From TrEMBL:
PANTHER family: LYSINE ACETYLTRANSFERASE, N-ACETYLTRANSFERASE DOMAIN-CONTAINING PROTEIN. This is N-acetyltransferase domain-containing protein. It comes from Kwoniella pini CBS 10737.
Length: 393
């Protein structure tokens, strides 16, 4: 075992929000892994745009955290990650009220190459839990942690991340001996892949219309009401349930927007959603949000959110996806987290033979496995209830 693996050594390291130079060190380490076709300059510009201009990142919602030596707080980083602050809803065990809450999404966990496999990422993430939550004080071995302001870093009910390195590593990044780190639950990591076909028409069926980025704030408000109502009806006699709020600033537009930053538009403006307004105003609208290409998730057409899609409407939606998907050069579409929540819809999809549907669990490596950490009381056993793609980061 190398000398770096012993915990006495790790006690010399602590967490902080990156200063400017440390932020650049983190970006550079991430660029080595996720650059795709981007130069470092373009990668850096996109990160700054997210931080300063995007609705999901501005006002300090998007932060870089790094692991540093206690005796060199402004110096070299040994591991880093990013957090996005998002709004959520929680219905506590035995309560009948849905309350507002916060959830952090963690992204871009990376250790600079020379420092790999010394326990640095594990250390960073174990400490991070305590900065983001009101968990009981950290174990003695963590030492004192830098104070973070609860105004700029509100305490969250939980956090999540989408793992590309399998389902075990992040579960071992624990906040204390009695809580696991980010746990992957099978029902939340399912996938459905279907075939995009040459379009039969260039027009949408009657009653359907495209949605654009500008529409998403008002669509988010509608979805937020619906999500809250749905949660209020759920049974929480056994455990607390929580989920993201679709009205959380910019979260619905995160994937479609970042996709468009990286490539030419498929159409100008490019649709990011589809809506059906029923003639009977008592009925709820059907809403689908998508991205034609967002390469960091994978080179497929991505449906990130569906609301109120009934099985008989599916062929119409898939025909609409053919129109844009074909233009974007996509041959397959991808949707996550439906099998447990919408079994009938999945069954209908599987029954469309020409779509050659494949369903199952997403793969361990590069499968973006959703892991969740609960920060509320242990006995409430909090569970995140939505595994759709829209909250990916
Ligand atoms: C994943 C990563 C951040 C871990 O950083 P680290 O500081 O080396 O991690 P630690 O030393 O704390 O823990 C090492 C453990 O990470 C896990 N791990 C690291 N790379 C892994 C990989 N590619 N696949 C699966 N597990 C991996 C292993 O469990 C390993 O334990 P082991 O050495 O006993 O096998 C680092 O490998 C990295 O930067 N990878 C490239 C970027 C990346 O893929 N990030 C994850 C995005 S979700």
């Amino acid at each position: 075992m190398s000398m770096f693996k012993d915990t006495a050594n790790l006690a010399n390291f602590t967490i902080r929000i990156a200063n400017e130079l440390q932020g650049i060190q983190h970006l550079r380490a991430g660029w080595e892994i996720w650059k795709k076709d981007n130069t470092f300059e373009k990668y850096h510009t996109m990160a700054m745009k997210e931080r300063n201009e995007s609705p999901w990142g501005n006002d300090g919602k998007y932060l870089t955290w790094v692991l540093v030596r206690r005796d060199d707080m402004d110096g070299q980083i040994y591991a880093g990650c990013e957090t996005y602050l998002r709004k959520g809803f929680v219905k506590h065990k035995d309560s009948n009220k849905v309350e507002d809450t916060f959830i952090y999404t963690i992204a871009s966990v990376v250790t600079p190459k020379p420092y790999l496999r010394n326990g640095y990422a594990t250390r960073l993430l174990s400490l991070l839990h305590h900065q983001l939550s009101n968990l009981p004080p950290p174990p003695y071995s963590f030492g004192s942690l830098p104070e973070v302001s609860a105004t700029t870093i509100p305490k969250a009910i939980g956090s999540m991340l989408w793992s590309d390195v399998g389902s075990t590593f992040y579960s071992k990044c624990t906040s204390s001996s009695d809580r696991p780190g980010w746990v992957v639950e099978k029902p939340l990591v399912t996938e459905l892949i279907w075939k995009i076909l040459p379009p039969q028409s260039t027009k949408l069926d009657d009653g359907w219309e495209w949605l654009y980025l500008d529409d998403l704030p008002s669509i988010g408000a509608k979805l937020s009401n619906a999500a809250k109502l749905d949660l209020s009806k759920r049974d929480t006699s056994q455990k607390t349930l929580f989920q993201h709020d679709p009205a959380s600033e910019g979260t619905l537009s995160f994937i479609p927007t970042k996709g468009m930053w990286q490539r030419p538009l498929i159409e100008d403006p490019e649709p990011v959603g589809l809506r059906f307004i029923p003639s009977d105003s008592q009925e709820q609208e059907t809403i689908i949000i998508f991205s034609m290409r967002m390469i960091n998730i994978g080179d497929r057409l991505l449906i990130t959110y569906i609301h109120n899609l009934s099985p008989p409407q599916l062929p119409t939606v898939l025909k609409a996806m053919d129109i844009l998907g074909h233009k974007a050069g996509q041959t397959e579409g991808w949707i996550w987290g439906l099998s447990a929540s919408r079994p009938n819809l999945v069954k209908t999809w599987q029954g469309l033979e020409d779509r050659q549907v494949k369903t199952g669990q997403r793969q361990e490596i590069d499968g973006h496995l959703l892991g969740v950490a609960w920060y509320g009381p242990l006995e409430e056993n909090g569970e995140l209830i939505d595994g759709q793609m829209w909250t990916w980061a």
